[in-house]
């Protein structure tokens, strides 16, 4: 029997890292693993670890618009994200958690 419980995180950032190895478009084509690594670093440097979790996800179903990032439970999605867009996503996370200054 599974144990149902609340998420320990205020929000969870999922970065699609699905890789179809060029067979057809997938988020890994846009360096989404690098994006995920940069987001994780940013979360640590902002002191949000424990409140914000960054995880890889499989395909989110909108591959043509990728790389894709989604934030739950706030239901915020980013499409067409590049590794250099980390600041915009971190800024959004700051607004969502009420820590716009970050540090
Ligand atoms: S491969 Fe990322 S949404 Fe499908």
Give me the secondary-structure topology:
Elements: E1 11-16, H1 32-46, E2 52-57, E3 69-72, E4 76-78, H2 86-97
Parallel strand pairs: 1-2
Antiparallel strand pairs: 1-3, 3-4
The protein binds FE2/S2 (inorganic) cluster (FES).
Task: Please supply descriptive tags for the structure shown above.
Glutaredoxin, about 100 residues, globular, 4-stranded mixed β-sheet, alpha+beta
Folded structure, characterized:
This protein is α+β, with helices and mostly antiparallel strands. It has one domain (11-96): Glutaredoxin (3-Layer(aba) Sandwich), CATH 3.40.30. Helices cover 26% and strands 18% of the residues. The chain is built from two helices and four strands, in the order βαβββα. The chain has helices at 32-46, 86-97, and strands at 11-16, 52-57, 69-72, 76-78. Strands 2-1-3-4 form a four-stranded mixed sheet, covered by helices on one side. A hairpin with a 3-residue loop joins strand 3 and strand 4. The radius of gyration is 14 Å and the shape is globular. The model has no long low-confidence stretch (mean pLDDT 96). FE2/S2 (inorganic) cluster is lined by residues 16, 18, 26-27, 59-63, 66, 68. The site of FE2/S2 (inorganic) cluster has 11 residues, from loops.
